[in-house]
Amino acid sequence: MPAALLDGKKLAQTIQGEIASAAAAFEQKHGLRPGLAAVLVGNNPASHIYVRNKRKACAQTGIDSWLHELPEETSQVQLLDLIASLNADAKVHGILVQLPLPRQIDEATIIRAVTPIKDVDGFGPENLGLLVTGQPRYVPGTPAGVHQLLIRNGVALAGAHVVIVGRSNIVGKPLALILMQKAAGANATVTVCHSRSNNLAALTRQADVVVVAIGQAEFLKADMVRPGAVVVDVGINRLKDGKLVGDVDFAGVSQVASAISPVPGGVGPMTITMLLQNTLAAATLQTK
Ligand SMILES: NC(=O)c1ccc[n+]([C@@H]2O[C@H](COP(=O)([O-])OP(=O)(O)OC[C@H]3O[C@@H](n4cnc5c(N)ncnc54)[C@H](OP(=O)(O)O)[C@@H]3O)[C@@H](O)[C@H]2O)c1
Fold it and tell me: Does the bond joining 140 to the residue before it have cis omega, within 30 degrees of 0?
């Protein structure tokens, strides 16, 4: 395999070590730990695994976490009541509402209900607005993780053409905003593609860096990548045989790319790590 591996698992461990040191210093200074409240509604098995992993990472880095589990039939009013109590709780610095939510609950309403200073997922309009205007506070975990994976592996972004496939509010759009910031470690030229883009392969072939976040197993093939390009795979797809694969045909693309992130062990661990970093930042902002 000629491509170098963008090893998110290893990098996540390094950054979590840095977060653990900062969290210990925070505790020593303020006599309390950074704290994250996780809210889990319903029985989605993947959501249960994601929340368990996030809480485990909190425990390993010296961040307190509390789990609020609500049944599938929870009403929007009940969830809003819980969020109001967490907004008012001084020991809770960050609030994580695991998505997706059951159908009777409007996600946008819930996201807006989390007070912006505790919105450590960075999904609310205030935090996204700060990112748009070049004053990032809490940046959503997955795109922040992709960014760290690139810069901490020495991928030059200034002036580079980054093509992002996928325009979701949680990955593609905020990633474009991060990479086009007028700031060190950014200054990329960004193209965002989606399911209505014409001649997608012609666009991805122009890229110095391709990021794929669409949720379609092994979609990006070797002939869609310029030889020597860097490829980041955000996708998580489970095949019928139970195997976990990304949105990139790893076997083929790793023959042409200069560097590539694996699934699992690429963006996933970085996402969790960035949530911890936001929680630490939230604790610092809320503690004088
Ligand atoms: N590693 C992690 O921590 C992490 C975190 C979040 C998500 N993910 C994974 O990343 C993937 C994307 O998640 P998401 O929440 O961003 O998904 P999403 O909300 O479903 O958005 C998918 C995006 O991909 C575009 N798309 C779909 N099929 C396409 C195609 N054939 N060609 C070009 N564009 C296409 C869609 O276009 P339209 O807008 O035109 O519909 C949409 O913009 C999923 O596999 C998810 O599990 C991983």
Answer: no
SS3 content of the chain, % helix, strand, coil (to 5): 40, 15, 40
Give, in order, the Cα–Cα distances in Å from 61 to each of 21, 26, 268.
8, 12, 17
- What are residue 190's phi and psi, to 5 degrees? -115, 135
Q: Cβ atoms within 10 A of the Cβ of 156, count? A: 14
CA-based radius of gyration for the chain? 19
The identity of residue 187, as a single letter, is N
DSSP state of 218: T
What residue's CA is closest to ligand 1, atom 23?
166
Report the 10 Å Cβ neighbour count for 226: 16
Run of H or E including 158: none
User: In a 10 Å sphere around its CB, with 0-12 CB exposed, 13-18 middle and 19+ buried, how is residue 175 labelled?
Assistant: buried
Nearest ligand 1 atom to alpha carbon 196: 40
174 touches 139 (CB < 8 A): yes
How far apart are alpha carbons 55 and 94 in whole angstroms? 12
Alpha-carbon span 164 to 175, nearest angstrom: 8
Residue 98 among the catalytic residues: yes
**215 Cα: distance to centroid of ligand 1 (angstroms):** 5
Segments of the chain scoring below 70 in pLDDT = 1
Q: What is the pTM of this model?
A: 0.97
The residue whose two tokens read 């900062």 is 22
Mind listing the domains of the chain with CATH numbers? 30-116 (3.40.50.10860), 141-268 (3.40.50.720)
